[in-house]
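User: For documentation purposes, I need each entry recorded in a consistent format: the amino acid sequence on its own, followed directly by the corresponding structure tokens. There are two entries in this batch. Please keep commentary to a minimum and don't merge the entries.

Assistant: Recorded as requested. Entry 1:
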Amino acid sequence: MLAVEGIARYRFAHPNPPPAGTGPAPRGMYVDDAAAGFRFAPGFQVPGLDFRTDEHGLRDSGRAWEPATEGTLRVVVLGDSFAAGWGIDDEGSFAALLDRTLTRAAGREVEVWNLGVTHYGPEQSLERLRSAWSELRPDVVVLAFCLGNDAWDVVGGPGYFRISDSEMVSAGWAPRGSPLDDARAEMNRFEGAPDLPLDGWLQRHSYGWRMLLQLVSAARGAESRTPFGLGRFDYEVFGGIPALAVEPEPDGVDEAWGLVDGVLAQLRGTAMSGGARLIVVPVPTRLQVHAGERGRAEASLAELIAEGGLAPSSRLVPDRGGERLAAICERLDIELVDVATPLRAAADSERLYFRFDSHWTAGGHRVAAEALGPALVDGVDVEVLRAALREEVAPGSYPTEAPPGRLSGSRAPARPEPADPGSRGRMR
């Protein structure tokens, strides 16, 4: 049994890499991280794109890792591809924009560090912060929480993706010593032998047992109990998992938000113990921002229902994820900053999400920065900040086509998009 367990743990730690060029991210983009599972590789550039990391593996300006000088307000931004600024050049993410403009608008020195990493979930952001805390010692921590998929990402947790031979591999969930392991094990339980003695304990602690159940389940044609019916759907318009934007909530969604609650409670504790403020920024999907996308989302939802992925009674509620997140933050006394409202206000005149992709354009990042800046530091001159941000990213001056790349969230176009600029609020 010990030999089987050893083999299973080795296989999990060293999964077979995918064929070259077929992984979910460019080869060499990530390295292993003991706590978060992976992080950006130091000194990496995405081939053909203005997307670089510094010597610390941050999409930042290569500053020294040391406490801030006296009088300087240090902000650390956490999150996934929205925080990291996927599709945006190195100077264009909302963190980079605020780093260059807030000092002028606030009348004091402000640093904004970007610890965002593509493919991260909230728990990985927490672990990344913990590992960097002693060097960075932030005054403010900002978590950009993607409403389209972060509640899904937390179900898999930090071990879901692994790095093998410089390629990212989906390894599936396995116990990692997290306080959330018990709940996560139940949500990822294989149906091979759920009633055997000690099954629950073994699924939480034994890699070998989970490997065995995976083989048994596959032989029986069964699957794990991972929540959310998944099949073909329009990722671009949903910005993630459709089950997070429907009612009644499918099985597992409530449990997933329970995991989010647990992660945010830990993040709040980490920030408070270090004397920092915590701010959560709900990142809306394009469905929440562009009302004209509802018909397209309804059509995709109908396909999922027809395929049995969601219940026949399912109805679209675009802001459901935002409501769940707001309730958690209210209970935990965590500050929220709304960026959805200003994004909606700007959506009729600017393209804020890439065509055929779920991420923000440089315009989307500018609007988010304008909304977030005044919440980070007292005394911000809003007009000065707005003017400075528009000097950095003028409306309509940026690319609206997503760059080529291998990140979840990018999909081939489902249908041609109208060329009329007046239709930008009704993207297709």
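Entry 2:
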Amino acid sequence: MRIDILTVVPELLESPLGHSIVGRAIKEGLVEIQVHNIRKDGIGPREMVDDYCYGGDAGMVMMIEPVEKMIEALKSERDYDEIIYLSPDGELLNQGISNELSLLNNIILLCGHYKGIDERIREHLVTREISVGDYVVSGGEIPAALLADTIQHAQGGDGILLGDETAQNRHDGSPAQTHEIAHRLKRMSEDRHVAAVDIAAGKSHQCPDDHRHSQNHGSSLFQKRHRPLPHRHADGASVGEMVERHLHDKGRLDVLEEYLPDDDA
């Protein structure tokens, strides 16, 4: 998969994309992430990328010309499945969207800055708008890094460090496995007088691995303290159902056994 990120502040993306699991995925060729400085296509000797709002409103907006020029140059090299603008009023990012995007081949992420972007960019160039939360940040760089991270993670990014089983379990459609990394317990110190296995298994002395695949997807402790597991897409489809749709469209239903458990399991 290839992700192209368009920004006026590329330095903000160097650290989050250059280290940890995402950084290793890039180095090992599992995902390609290219960061492009929009200023390279800026106007005039000062490489301007912003201008005053039409009508005289306060603040500056990103101009359409540099953005359009860069997007058209990228599209001349390859086809893109989505051109996504990181916007505070876009679709609210969830695990379903992350899994959906992880099945694509090439996407562009456009980072807004200043007061926003020229409205014509949204109308004519962008195919989708995504928000990472109900709040406003100074630019789209951190949201873009977050989105790239969660997409790569949905592809099975844990498999880089934890082995192939983790990557396969990411797509089995189970609510617990889809979000299991957030609820996996570490060993507790002896002075707490509580065994991690007891908490995970509701004190039934199941091993945690058996508990992950059971119908009881968490103890009352988790049910009280955490939100519902974000394992479904906006249309109600589970992760497994989305993967099955994708493979059906590609004529590759024969590979389902590699990702989805048997019904009798």
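Summary note for entry 2:
The first strand starts at residue 2 and ends at 7.
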